[in-house]
TrEMBL record:
Alphabetized InterPro entries for the sequence: A-D-PHexomutase_a/b/a-I, A-D-PHexomutase_a/b/a-I/II/III, A-D-PHexomutase_a/b/a-II, A-D-PHexomutase_a/b/a-III, A-D-PHexomutase_C, A-D-PHexomutase_C_sf, Alpha-D-phosphohexomutase_SF
Family: Belongs to the phosphohexose mutase family.
UniProt source species: Rhodococcus maanshanensis
Protein name (record): Phosphomannomutase
Residue span, Alpha-D-phosphohexomutase alpha/beta/alpha domain: 12-133, 158-257, 264-371
A single BP term in Gene Ontology: carbohydrate metabolic process
Length: 454
């Protein structure tokens, strides 16, 4: 059946499929997406692996997608409940395309699909989603051959063994770890991965519940870290870890209950990966702290800067052969994990680094935290280009350089810079500022917002 283009494009976005269940996404729509995806990958694979998160709608939608795939003659391997990086692992292990049913950190009424080709290679707008959209709009053609089969395979133990095997954990001392899974898939993967390690785990919200009864499973929002921060301070844990809903992102809290910048985690992991492969390439996006490329250069590595967005990171990972990539949003990408992102792998690196020496985490991270940052600040504007031009004019006398890789990045010298970039989907300007001191950051934010919001 054909579908209105507007409704399809509202759900099949630049990087994934996502929408409100029952309004934008239902079993019929998902079955069509499954059929179109099968047609997209048919020449490269004979089967598709499917996993899903803890949302109430996920099993039914996953089964509908499987029906669309098998109707096109491809087989399906169901791995059941999984984190997104567990699905990527299955795609790599089985060398076949995959589909993960999740809406990540979005509220309970949402669901969606993250698609990949064999070896966890991403499927985005330019690499398949546009083709899928067109077929769903026009109507997915039928298939005259024999329908595919459906089998089930539990890969959790193999996933846990694999990620532990990518990190040197041999010198880890016993430690206490508070983990906030946010009722998401971290409650599924953390026990399997951490069980053999010398860790005393204090589990928070490990019950799988797609209604998120305790807080949103989005640790990027500071209010969702509060419970973990309080638990660490109360119990004296050595470290706190928080995972988002599909557990592909991991956030870190030190023993004082203070959040650790994802840029600092990127720098730490980069140092560890460069120790394994001196001179390797490290990817970072343009709003990651300047401490990351500085450290990479000091260690003899090659930093490569990209636009914001996982598709750009993964593309650069593939093109450069980079060993590791990190984003300000706590997505961490590993060449040895098929270039895909894994919050669990980043967590293991931080645990290994902490557990092989005697300093507390707050001291360990000081060498990676060279600057102060504003975090991302959004402003609703009528004309993003006009407001950006006004900011550039206001700073024209102090600007050392401007580049336009993604929005505008203005270098003010002495370690100070800011980036302004427009949202692709909303009337927003996003501001990030970094400088040597909190006072300098605050002053720059106030000055820039004074122009943006005038």
């Amino acid at each position: 059946m054909s579908r209105p283009a507007e409704s399809v494009h509202a759900v099949i976005k630049a990087y994934d499929v996502r929408g409100v269940v029952g309004e934008q996404i239902d079993v019929d729509f998902v079955r069509d997406v499954g059929g179109a995806f099968a047609r997209l990958v048919r020449d490269d694979a004979g089967r598709v692996v499917i996993g899903y998160d803890m949302r109430e709608s996920s099993p039914e939608l996953a089964n509908a997608f499987a029906g669309g795939v098998t109707a096109q003659g491809l087989d399906v391997v169901l791995i059941g409940l999984a984190s997104t990086d567990q699905l990527y692992f299955a795609s790599g292990l089985l060398d076949c395309p995959g589909a993960m049913f999740t809406a990540s950190h979005n509220p309970a009424k949402y669901n969606g699909i993250k698609l990949c080709r064999a070896g966890a290679k991403p499927v985005g707008q330019d690499t398949g989603l546009a083709t899928i959209s067109a077929e769903v709009i026009e109507g997915v053609p039928g298939f005259d051959g024999e329908a595919g089969s459906v089998s089930e395979q539990d890969v959790l133990t193999e996933y846990a063994d694999f990620v532990r095997g990518l990190v040197d954990l041999s010198s880890m001392k016993p430690m206490s770890v508070a983990v906030d899974a946010g009722n998401g898939m971290g409650g599924h993967t953390v026990p399997a991965v951490f069980e053999p390690l010398p860790l005393s785990v204090d589990p928070m919200y490990f019950e799988l519940d797609g209604n998120f009864p305790n807080h949103e499973a989005n640790p990027l929002d500071p209010k969702n870290l509060v419970d973990l921060q309080e638990r660490v301070r109360l119990t004296g844990a050595d470290i706190g870890l928080a995972f988002d809903g599909d557990a592909d992102r991991c956030f870190v809290v030190d023993e004082l209950g203070n959040p650790v910048s994802p840029s600092a985690v990127t720098a730490l992991v980069a140092e560890r990966e460069l120790a394994k492969e001196p001179g390797a390439t490290i990817i970072h996006n343009l709003i990651t702290s300047r401490a990351v490329p500085e450290l990479v250069i000091e260690l003899g590595g090659t930093p490569v800067r990209t636009r914001v967005g996982h598709s750009f990171i993964k593309q650069q990972m593939a093109e450069t052969g980079a060993i590791f990539g990190g984003e300000h949003s706590a997505h961490y990408y590993f060449r040895d994990f098929w270039g895909a992102d894994s919050g669990m792998l980043a967590a293991l690196h931080v645990l290994a680094a902490l557990g092989e020496q005697d300093r507390p985490l707050s001291d360990l991270m000081k060498s990676y935290e060279r600057y102060e940052a504003s975090g991302e600040i959004n402003s609703t504007v009528a004309d993003a280009a006009e407001r950006t031009a006004a900011v550039l004019a206001a700073f024209s006398g102090r600007t050392k350089s401007v580049d336009r890789l993604d929005g505008v990045t203005v270098n003010l010298g002495q370690g100070a810079w800011f980036n302004l970039r427009a949202s692709n989907t909303e009337p927003l300007l996003r501001l990030n500022v970094e400088a040597r001191t909190v006072e300098e950051v605050d002053a720059l934010v106030a000055e820039i917002l004074g122009v943006v919001r005038a």
